[in-house]
Amino acid sequence: MKSKLFIILLLTVGLVFSVVGAASASGTLVFGSSGDVSGLDPADVTDGESIQRMDNIFEGLVEFESGSTLIKPCLATSWETSADGTEIVFHLREGVKFHDGTDFNADAVVFSFARQYDTTHPYNQYGEWPYWGYMFYDVDRMEKIDDFTVKLVLKRPNASIMTSLAMFTVCIVSPTNAEKYKEDAFKNPCGTGPFKFVEWVKDDHITLEANENYWRERASLDKLIFKVISDPSARLMALEVGEVQGIEYPNPADLDRIKANKDLKLLTEPGMNVGYMAMNEGYGYIDENKNGVRDLDSEPLVKTPGYFEPLTKKEVRQAINLAIDKQSIVDNLYMGTAIKAKNGMPPFMLGYNDAIEDYPYDPARAKELLAKAGYPDGFEVTLYVMPVSRPYMFDPPKIGEAIQSYLAAVGITVKFYQVDWGTYLQETMEGNHQMCLLGWTGDNGDPDNFMNVLYGANACSIGTAGNYAFYTNNTNQELLSAALATYDEEKRAAYYKKAQEMIHEDAGWVYLAHSNQNMVFKSNVNGFVINPTSRYFFYPVVIE
Predict the structure, then answer these.
(1) Greatest CA span in the chain, whole angstroms?
(2) d(Cα 498, Cα 343) in Å, to the nearest integer?
(3) Which of 9, 70, 252, 492 would you call most buried, defined as having the most Cβ atoms within 10 angstroms of its Cβ?
(4) pLDDT exceeding 70 applies to what percent of the chain?
């Protein structure tokens, strides 16, 4: 078996070479990615693989400082906020061009926002705009004041709005390019960023080239190629033999080998993430008006496509939490690169409730709860298993196998379901799953980006869900909305702590781990800085 595996890995590396070619120090960097993108419209994706490519093509009004979630000017040079916090006037950078040669201006900003929130906008039909519902439902409108001044108007104060504006969702797209490609614009991205789109060969690679007319200094790299290599061992081998110059998500078992290789450098930073297994509680809603909020009087709860009666019962969900030895998973699969999770956001964030006692590993108690719920002999359930490595879960199949084994010990038979990454995301947002492996990396450093997006009832919209347990507790949503509406950090923290108590009791998720971010580059690649949000900015990178 070992010899066959080695041959397979060599063949995989050979395919990388044949498609991409050997990159040299002349300015081409090939990066080994774990999966392909789901699309290339920054406002219509939720997955890291897509975002990481687009971070080098598009820009927003503000951006994060290197290695942090502090914001600084980007396409806006300055801004002023009204006393009540509901209006922000932005002054735009002049002389900036989109990659298609057209001008960046206020019209482009209004277009990029309005196509997401205005259901009558002619380009609203070309996307689902899930993140608008997650993070921007407090936005009323974006107005043009003059060619280089715009005003963002909010429905109510929003404590996270400025950091949220550094997110990919509100990056500015070329209206001319959108008009040219219409429903195919997601295959033909056009922004103002340091790299221009060249080609996307699905499930193989995406090629970018330096933007010669960039408003800052031109990028050092001439070309940037994201090559899909799904197997972590094959990614490392490709790096070792020089077929790629950087990789993501190395296998923790290979870290000592990487550290011992003088031709490689390992970058490691704490992750702002959580990996989990979600259990579909059975009900969501159809967001008819696409406002990102469940309107209780007109949008009733309906069964999700993955409705499965056992998981609608709290005792069953608690039993599943008790049946899984999370510490063993962290020790033996994450191998020192993560800490065990008990809540749905990282421990260092505002409002983290450390007083909550995690579900212990207690198979006997799990069996008692299953019997109490009416399932003394267990049942059969399907688990969606991610086909790609993620920052919070480097090897989903192995973690799935561990969960399968633990649940079998209490009488629950787990069957696996796997499909390509784009389909996986769409099916889980639609609620087709019974249970699924997923996770989250924070987008802006604010607790709202975990709590509201992942656990709020508003995020249970079938088709664009971020709450994959379809946990529709309205009292919990009221707490999360109140936390977002105040700038008082003590009050915000109290709201979030109370919400975590409710989420823990109702047990829609098995929280597994908060993991470190690990990336590996050739030793002659310099300038890459890991961002807490797991976004990849290659503009500063040089090959010496």
Answers:
(1) 69
(2) 12
(3) 492
(4) 95
Q: Estimate to the nearest angstrom the gap between the alpha carbon of 311 and the chain centroid.
A: 25
Angle between helices 489-506 and 474-484 (to 10 degrees): 160
Alpha-carbon gap, residue 456 to 464, rounded angstroms: 13
Instruction: Report H helices in 373-488.
Output: 396-408, 421-429, 448-455, 474-484
Q: pLDDT tens digits, residue range 368-423?
A: 999 999 999 999 999 999 999 999 999 999 999 999 999 999 999 999 999 999 99
CA torsion 249-250-256-261 (nearest 10°) is -110
How open is the CA angle 105-110-112, to the nearest 5 degrees?
A: 95
Count H helices and E strands in the chain, helices first.
16, 23
CA-to-CA separations, 173 to 104, 162, 166, 191, 411, in angstroms, rounded: 9, 19, 14, 5, 52
Average pLDDT estimate for 115-141 = 95
Q: Where in the chain are the domains?
A: 28-227, 273-516
Q: What is the Cα–Cα distance from 409 to 426, expressed in whole angstroms?
A: 31
- Cα 486 to Cα 350: distance, rounded to the nearest angstrom: 13
Beta bridge partners of 441: 273
Tell me the three-class secondary structure of 53-110, residue by residue.
Answer: HHCCCCCCCEEECCCCCCEEECCEEEEEECCCCCEEEEEECCCCECCCCCECCHHHHH
Tokens of 107: 């019209």
DSSP-derived secondary structure letter, 9: H
Amino acid at 404: Q
Residue 472 sits at φ, ψ, to 5 deg, of -105, 40
State the amino acid at position 365 in one-letter form: R
- Specify the pLDDT at position 290: 87
Mean of the pLDDT values across residues 509-538?
Answer: 96
What is the token pair recorded at 509? Answer: 């998720």
Q: Select from 3.40.1160.10, 1.10.10.10, 1.10.443.10, 3.10.105.10 the CATH code of 273-516.
A: 3.10.105.10
**Sign of the Cα pseudo-torsion (133, 134, 138, 141, in order):** negative
Of 95, 98, 62, nearest in space to 175 by CA: 98
CATH number of 28-227: 3.40.190.10
Q: What mean pLDDT is predicted for residues 16-25?
A: 42
